[in-house]
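Morning!

This is the sequence you dropped in the shared folder:
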Amino acid sequence: MNQITKNKADSLNQLILNNPLIQEFKKYEKTLREHPELLSLEDEIKQESQIILKKKALGELTDEELKAYQDKKAYFENHPLIVNYLNLKSEVNDYLIQVETIINEELLKAID
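The structure's back. Tokens below.
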């Protein structure tokens, strides 16, 4: 990559990182890292999901196990920090897709 291209890429990267949406997302990301119990709960839910599916397929799933899993999952999915983080994550993803689309469209125009 030549220096001009690298400089332009660095400028674009900085512009993206300075976007208020990205800044807000990074704050939530940092806050979430300060709550390892939520991160470990997410891992537990993923693991339990696999166990639930296997037990259900084998006909071994009890109502109590399913209820405990659903309660844990609902607590996680309705936690305000998680709700806001996931909403912001979705918005950031949409924003980055828009940026990528604009770049690709402009590149195609330049090539034609």
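Headline: The radius of gyration is 21 Å.

More detail when I'm at my desk.
O.
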